[in-house]
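Quick one:
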Amino acid sequence: MSLAALLSVAASAAPARAHEGAPPAETRVTAAGRSFPASPADSVLRIMFLDVGQGDAVLVQAPTGQVALIDAGRGAVVPILRQFGVGEIDLLVATHPHADHIGGMVRVIETFPIRFYMDNGQPHTTQTYRRLLAALDARPGITYLEASPRTLALGEVEIEVLPLLPRGSTEHNDRSVSLAVRYGHFTAFLSGDSEVRQLSHLVEQGAVHQTTVLKAPHHGSDNGFTSAFLDMARPDVVVISVGRNPYGHPRPAAVQAYDASGATIFRTDLHGHVLVRGRQSGDYEVAVGGNVAFRGSARGDDPGPVRIPVPGSDPGGTRDVGIRIRVHADAPGNDHRNPNGEYAVIENLESEDRAIGGWTLCDRANHCFTFPPDALLAAGGRLVVHTGSGQADGTRYYMGRRQAVWNNGGDTATLYDSGGAAVVMFSY
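Output:
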């Protein structure tokens, strides 16, 4: 037990209920009564993108044991945190005061010892926000940190708080607390529900640099990215925190932009909790369902990411795997009365057969079809998956749906292997 320093910040702290005033710079805050073991050479930073439905909750666990939670979803996040061994929270961040980000935060504050709390300093009028303030008032031992530009040290992990637009100049999404989490050559970019104005501001401020993992801003909305932002960030991996929603998130334009940037995409609505383990060397791996789905490296002296194959999966993530998907979404006549008139086509572009038993094809709304154990995608051949009902014959399969699945106005088809890893994605 050698590291007594828990959390240091390049700014001082104000009381939890004092939601205003930027503290002076260069003041170090250290732990009282807590210490952590020095990290071993192969220690990892764990960033867990929690499956909380249509909302955000990101758990950051430093190699030396410190814990940060960025947002808390809309509802019961405490059981999930306990599942992943959380007993105390050193830094709790509300990126902005919308219910799908702070709805579960009151229970978190009531349940766990918390040392520091940060938000964007811009109040809201909702009951959800007022309940959060009341919970903070009831815990005067929590130290409030305003989200002014500063660098926090969570053990060996640096968390840079990026510059916000001026208070009162825009609505809450575009004043989301944005964080760059760094551990050696590994970097994650977390930005709540930032939209075009805030992302453009960050680019103009020179605050966006190459990142290993990007949490898609605003749940994969088409106003949650810009070309300039993605050109600067160049993410290896994009994680979209999303659930069933009436907004069409993630939007096809966003998915296409992330794919075109060269990133491998993971989604909490399809994969559940997404765990990223990063090392100081820049090596990292992404695990879903307890299985490693993707490995890579973002070493500082390399011109770009190095894709490392995962045994049993394809080295290109969701690209260049020799499989192509096409979707015929607009069935003749009434789509819902003719579900077999819409279908997905899966083609094998390689010269070898591909066993796809247990693989799953899903649309954006998580309507899925799982191939039977003996399913085979022949070399140079194709399989057709109809939406309606019928008798499978080895080349034609049926989802068994009574209504249309594929949206005529745009959708995403993703093929997952039997371990839950995304093999190929098609958006239209």
